[in-house]
Amino acid sequence: MPEDSEIIEQIVDRYDGDDGMLIPMMQDLQAESGYLPADQLRCLGRHLRLPLSRLYAVATFYSSFRLAPKGAHEVTLCMGTVCYLKGSASISEAITREFQVEPGGTTRDRLFSFQAVNCMGACAVAPVMTVDGKYYNGVSPASALEILYGLTKEHVTADKEEQT
Ligand code: FES
Q: Same domain, yes or no, for 103 and 137?
């Protein structure tokens, strides 16, 4: 398996080292690794002579980039204008507080990845959250946490069944 620096060199060469192609380079890097590991971002920044802060600014601006490996479940919370006005910020804070995961991250036990995205096209039933593509409408901090604790229980049950 190629070393980090080899992977980065191949990607940078693919775009002739043009730092204007930073986003496609980061997309290729994510396609290789499944996410954007900190070491690889640092290495890419060095190759392009760009400050790491610029790469992180791009990585956190676009919701398609992930800074942590994928969790078993994908949780997406809409932070679009309507959802925001109806309280999605407090839902996000509750999830971060309760599960120690920031938007763009994955819980330590890899139970779920948490993404904050823009309008999901369901403003009439805001705020909206999805778990593995299933929509939950009109969620509150309490109901969002309940849904996510449901995932935890499912996993505990599945693990117990596997052991028996
Ligand atoms: S703003 Fe959230 S669905 Fe439109």
A: yes
Is the CB of 82 inside a 6 Å radius of any atom of ligand 1?
Answer: yes
- Check whether residue 125 and residue 47 sit in a common domain: no
C-alpha 53 to ligand 1 mean position (Å): 29
Q: From the CA of 80, give the closest atom in ligand 1.
A: 1
N-term to C-term CA, the chain: 37
Q: How far apart are CA 42 and CA 37, in angstroms?
A: 9
Which residue in 61, 63, 68, 21 sits closest to 44, CA to CA? 21
- Say if residues 44 and 9 touch (Cβ distance below 8 Å): no
Pairing of strands 112-117, 129-131: unpaired
CATH number at residue 83: 3.40.30.10
Q: What is the pLDDT of residues 17-69, one digit of tens each?
A: 999 999 999 999 999 988 899 999 999 999 999 999 999 999 988 877 888 88
Contact call for residues 141 and 94 (beta carbons, < 8 A): yes
The pTM assigned to this predicted structure is: 0.70
- At residue 78, φ and ψ (nearest 5 deg) are -80, 130
Instruction: For residue 28, give every residue at least 6 positions away whose Cβ sits within 8 Å of its Cβ, in sequence order, or none.
Output: 11, 14
How many whole angstroms separate alpha carbon 60 and alpha carbon 67? 8
- Residue 78 corresponds to which tokens in the numbers above? 């809409």
